[in-house]
Amino acid sequence: MNVNIHESWKPYLETEFDKPYFKDLISFVKAEYRSHTCFPPGNQIFNAFNHCHFDDVKVVIIGQDPYHDVGQANGLCFSVNDDIKHPPSLVNIFKEIETDLKIPYPKSGNLMRWADQGVLLLNATLTVRAHQAGSHQKKGWELFTDAVIKAISDNKENTVFLLWGGYAKQKQKLINIKKHNILTSGHPSPLSANRGYWFGNKHFNKANSLLEQVFLTPVQW
Question: What pTM, to 2 d.p., does this model score?
């Protein structure tokens, strides 16, 4: 099956593309995009992989679902296109970076600049129907993205996984903690952040310190 994903990922994921669940998933997604408005645009579904090649992955951030309003989703978790209002979770991410690293709050919420530095911004579900949060969950995407996490865990070393919130923390079981680093905290959504589970986690500083310890270039957050 021809999947619009960067060549570097294919040796690790090709077996998934041939599994019945993945074929069913692609059929479902194609039908959804034909009959409904869905996000992200079809050519951006695998953007996380196309901007962050397998060999370059050094940090993984796991989200749950793409944004479901017009113009927001661009295939990278928590990221929005240039000139789009920053959603509440992204605002809180940038606020934490501001206090953690003393760098100014950015104008653009487009996190492509992170992906291009080796940050895999992976939503567990890669598509969604417009204005219907969670509408493409449990159709097969989670099986695929779990396989992605496991492929990174099995075939790489010293990756920093940032797991924010209960859903992301469930992915710990897929990660070999002898080879990789996991940082967990509450989710950056207002519900969690306003209860004190997000701000002050210093994940961006800690992630860079872990990368520097193994002689990898820190991320320009």
Answer: 0.97
